[in-house]
Design a protein that fits this description.
This protein is an alpha/beta fold. It contains 16 helices and 14 strands. The strands form three sheets. It has a five-stranded parallel β-sheet with strand order 2-1-3-4-5. α10 packs across α11, α14 packs across α15 and α14 runs antiparallel to α16. 37% of the residues are buried. It comes from Luteolibacter rhizosphaerae.
């Protein structure tokens, strides 16, 4: 009787009699990306990724921060996507690019725009786990990202109507927080990467609403506008351990001699007096510059200072006002004290490095608005076709759905050729980016202003 009771107790604890216990070995989540020339990163997601904004801004960072590293970057976002949809297009839209890392931004649609429903979450978590197995199976490492913010206040400021009831509007942002917490724990347990998108968007919104109660970065309540997408891009740079400094240059004068030191820059040809300093510099990277529509987000995140710092410090100048010129063009005026404290070069729009980075951003914007968007729209058609196939399989007598499926099928012939054409055009534009993104040598002069 005692032996039976002991065995029964073991079974209740999930341990079979005679079976060996497997020790739990905790895994460390990914701290940073380990990138090499030729590595591929796929950005997998829904319409928020399909917007080609936060992905574009991260691409701008990679193009300018690692100009010698030719990374292959692929947007795999499709409007309306859930984890289930991503599984259907995975082989061609993700695995075919042989990624080293796959960022995953899914959940906004999976929660069905409702208060938390256990069966909905159970389905989502099962499909996400299947997706993670697929990512691992193709030799890549997943980077899980929390769903973004649902802005209930922005929804309430819209005209009445829509498919969401008051309860769903009130609780959906909390539902997404729950999904994000599960993703964080899953990333930790599996040893994957993790990026918190939900937190920075909500925290920035709360901070700004103390000044302006009507503030929002998500006017339609779901899709972050360009400033909000800058917050998202900054969260990725923050959480994935990317370097924050472009370059640091320091100069000091002892007697008649100037000495220099630098981080991520090579300095030569230093000369000067108490009222003048000149030198030549070649930096390893360019500042992180984004298109004009993202400027509000740059200010909200202090993007340059936090993630693209490029500084010049000059100690030992005589008192007075000084002109900073680069390649003979005046880019700033500052006092000797300000030069000693450090001048933020990344904020100088007239500087040639800034202008060069702006050219990269402009060309990449054209790339995203052109072939990248065209490629994503092909996958929208594919996703609709697969969705309607599933609907007809569930309701074979529904003639209206059959008709919609027939219309969707008409868009499928030639898709692979159109996909390849868009891929080729995107690559050609990226070739142009890599022709203009190498840092160039510049001649600096700090000279006392006349008068």
């Amino acid at each position: 009787m005692k032996a039976w009771t002991f065995a029964f107790g073991l079974s209740l604890a999930g341990i079979s009699a005679g079976a060996e216990e497997v020790a739990y070995v905790p895994r460390a989540p990914l701290a940073k990306l380990d990138l090499s020339d030729g590595d591929a990163i796929v950005f997998l997601g829904d319409s928020i990724t399909h917007q080609c904004l936060y992905t574009q801004y991260v691409e701008d960072y990679l193009y300018t921060r690692f100009p010698k590293m030719r990374l292959r970057l692929h947007n795999a976002g499709v409007g309306g996507s859930r984890a289930w949809d991503a599984l259907l297009r995975f082989d061609r839209d993700v695995a075919a690019y042989k990624p080293k890392y796959v960022t995953v931004l899914l959940g906004m649609n999976d929660g069905k725009y409702a208060e938390y429903l256990d069966d909905v979450f159970t389905s989502y978590s099962a499909e996400m786990n299947r997706l993670l197995e697929k990512i691992e199976g193709c030799g890549a490492t997943a980077i899980l990202m929390t769903p973004t913010m649902y802005d209930a206040r922005a929804k309430r400021m819209q005209p009445p109507g829509g498919f969401m009831g008051p309860k769903a509007v009130t609780f959906y942002n909390s539902t997404l927080a729950y999904y994000g917490a599960w993703l964080r724990d899953t990333a930790c347990e599996r040893g994957l990467g993790f990026v918190d998108m939900w937190g920075p968007l909500n925290e920035t919104t709360l901070r700004e609403r103390r000044r302006d109660p009507a503030f929002t970065m998500i006017k339609d309540s779901v899709h972050p506008d360009a400033p909000g997408q800058v917050v998202m891009a900054a969260a990725m740079i923050e959480d994935l351990g990317f370097p924050r400094v472009v370059s640091e240059m320091r100069f000091s004068r002892q007697g008649e001699e100037w000495s220099s030191s630098a981080v991520s820059a090579e300095i030569r040809g230093v000369e000067g007096t108490a009222e003048r300093l000149a030198f030549t510099c070649l930096e390893e990277a360019l500042p992180w510059v984004l298109p004009e529509e993202a400027e509000a987000g740059v200010r909200l995140t202090e993007l340059g200072e936090k993630f693209g710092r490029q500084s010049l410090r000059v100690s030992g100048l005589a008192a007075g006002t000084y002109v900073l010129s680069i390649d003979g063009v005046e880019v700033a005026r500052a006092s000797g004290e300000e030069f000693q404290a450090g001048l933020a070069l990344h904020a100088l729009a007239k500087a040639p490095q800034y202008q060069q980075a702006a050219q990269v951003a402009a060309l990449n914007k054209r790339r995203n608005e052109g072939p990248v968007k065209a490629l994503r729209n092909e996958w929208v058609n594919f996703q609709m076709w697969k969705f309607l196939e599933a609907q007809v399989a569930k309701n074979p007598a529904d003639e209206a759905e059959k008709q919609r499926l027939a219309e969707a099928e008409k868009k499928m012939p030639g898709m692979e050729d159109r996909v390849k054409a868009a891929e080729a055009e995107a690559r050609a534009m990226e070739d142009e980016i890599f022709k203009i993104n190498p840092p160039r040598e510049h001649r600096y002069e700090v000279k006392r202003a006349e008068g």
